[in-house]
Amino acid sequence: MKKTNHLKVADGFAGQVFHIIPQSSLRLLESHHFVKALWATGIGWFPRARHHFMERPQGAKQHILILCVDGSGWVKSGSRRETVSAGQAVLIPAGVPHAYGASPRNPWSIHWAHFEGDDSAAYLQMAPAAGFRMRVAPTCVNSMVPVFQRCYDALTGGYADRNLIYLSHALRDLLGQLFFNNPAYSPDERSGPGRDLGTIMLFMAEQVGRSLKVSEMARHVGMSTTHFAEQFRRRTGMAPGEYFIHLRLKHACRLLDTTSLSIREVGFKVGYEDPYYFSRAFSNLMGLSPRQYRKLNKG
Fold first, then answer.
1. Of 52, 97, 170, 253, which has the fewest beta carbons less than 10 angstroms from its beta carbon?
2. Which residues, at least 6 apart from 229, have a Cβ–Cβ distance to it below 8 Å?
3. Whole-model pTM?
4. Assigned fold of 17-185
5. Are the beta carbons of 217 and 240 closer than 8 angstroms?
């Protein structure tokens, strides 16, 4: 396929969604209070995008976000080429020469957006320092996809101001999910291999039913206990042990809300064999006992 600076969709991809926001509409909103800090110039969905290819020798005028939910593709800048698989995102800063496309054997399915605005550079600063790829946890993918879909639904009604204002808010939601609600990625990845604390957060979430030592957490990510604790606190603002207690007691709240288990059984489910110790830990965090919490009228 001939290289070009335009998207090669030929007859398109079956089921695709494709929205490029008219410049006349964007000009009306660039100074709008709710939009000027971050706005999308285009957004879309390319399912099973066979032969999808893009090359921009001068880079794009906007930043680019791609979320791969199925299949695979690739992204290249200079001599560096990266394979992009399902459960990964790509962030390409404006002005960076690049090319990307779908794998010929297993073409990717991607949601994508082009964006700019005063706040966009701050988000890009949190992206990986080397390369464009970042991992996206399944829970985060499941949260991001409906946001993309709501954007498509909104824009089927045209490019009225209210729809573009919603699109701006949705874009901030997408980037917020990617950087702050994505346990598979940590900004500490910018420092190099072995620094990713996202994997330990997934590990901790899977271990809420037992006691877990900080030394075991550190071993799981191949760090010394001291270095791990320092990195974790820098990422979360909490000591790893404190964070894990919060996870366990958050799960206890869910059990108290959704099951008829006794207080003792709930404590045991989250790794507290001593019901008194469980009640004390719960009260210290929540400000009331498990029994009092269960009696609250919620919602």
1. 97
2. 214, 218, 239, 240
3. 0.66
4. Jelly Rolls (2.60.120)
5. yes
